[in-house]
Write a structure and sequence with these properties.
The chain has helices at about 15-25, 45-50, 60-75, 85-95, 110-120, 160-165, 185-190, 205, 220-230, 235-240, 245-255, and strands at about 10, 30-35, 105, 125-130, 175, 190-195, 210-215. It is of the alpha+beta class and about 280 residues long. The chain has 2 domains: about 10-240, no CATH class; about 245-275, no CATH class. The protein has a 4-stranded mixed beta sheet. The longest helix has 15 residues, at about 60-75.
Length: about 280
């Protein structure tokens, strides 16, 4: 992949991150947290095709094939399935259950993104930000079947939009959006998706430099304060994944926290004593 220089902001402390988010006009931006600042914004589909050396001439056929397999078999395990032609809804469902897709999970909350960046980070982490209006051609979220669609409206949620603009893997674009029907996790996380038009190029390679930012989080100097603050905001696995798996995952941070004392130093909280 070609090297792309993304505007990067170095963050040394948690208050600095909060100030950077609040001082900038980022209300309409989408965010993604990653545990390593060196990881590109690549989808699971992209990583799988490249890691296991699937020939590029087979990419379109193989991506189409796994979507078709999921459509044909998942009805046995689902109480209700999406409309046959709503490929974006199918992709969101596949992503939710762990299938490799070209969708990348984003959130409208910088703090949810920071949680995902820092929760298991040991190296410097990253929070990426994308500005949908600056990404390029307009992506219309809802279009009735009777409405005409102009050439600059390329959202994958438009009927036939995914097959026309994304599946061929020839369109150097990236758009932001979420399916019409959202699952509990997407709702809890304020979730959305980035959808690249080419799986052999990362999102930062496709996005204009004016539409993307990267916050490099110095994990060693800010993680402890950040995770405690996020915990107090009720941003945990238990709230972001409102199911039994989320509850179980949330217990990892409980090893770092106790209401009566600091488990790292054994120093009691104000008003408490440690026996």
């Amino acid at each position: 992949m070609e090297h792309v220089i993304t505007p990067e902001i170095d963050i040394e402390s948690w208050p600095q991150f909060r100030a950077a988010i609040e001082e900038r006009d980022l209300l309409s931006w989408a965010f993604r947290g990653q545990a390593s600042h060196s990881w590109p914004l690549s989808s699971t589909l992209s990583r799988y095709l490249l890691t296991y050396r699937i020939h590029p001439h087979a990419w379109v056929q193989q991506e189409s094939r796994i979507i078709r397999i999921f459509k044909r078999k998942s009805h046995l395990l689902l109480p209700r399935v999406p409309d046959e032609e709503d490929t974006f809804q199918w992709l969101a469902l596949m992503q939710h259950h762990g299938a490799p897709t070209r969708l990348l999970d984003f959130t409208w909350s910088p703090y949810v993104a920071a949680f995902f960046a820092l929760e298991r980070a040991t190296d410097d982490a990253a929070v990426w930000a994308l500005h949908p209006p600056t990404l390029g051609p307009r992506a219309t979220r809802t279009v009735r079947a009777s409405q005409s669609v102009s050439e600059d409206e390329i959202g994958p949620w438009i009927p036939g939009g995914f097959e026309r603009h994304f599946l061929p893997n020839e369109n150097p674009i990236v758009v932001i959006g979420e399916p019409h029907e959202m699952n509990r996790r997407l709702v809890a996380q304020g979730g959305t998706f980035a959808i690249p038009g080419m799986v052999d190029r990362s999102v930062e390679q496709l996005a204009p430099t004016t539409a993307i930012l990267k916050f490099r989080l110095r994990t060693k100097t800010l993680r402890e304060e950040a995770m405690a603050d996020l915990y107090n905001m009720n941003i945990t696995h238990a709230t972001l994944f409102p199911d039994l798996d989320g509850l179980a995952r949330s217990l990892a941070y409980e090893l770092e926290y106790h209401w009566a004392f600091d488990p790292r130093t054994m120093k009691p909280r104000p008003g408490y004593t440690v026996e």
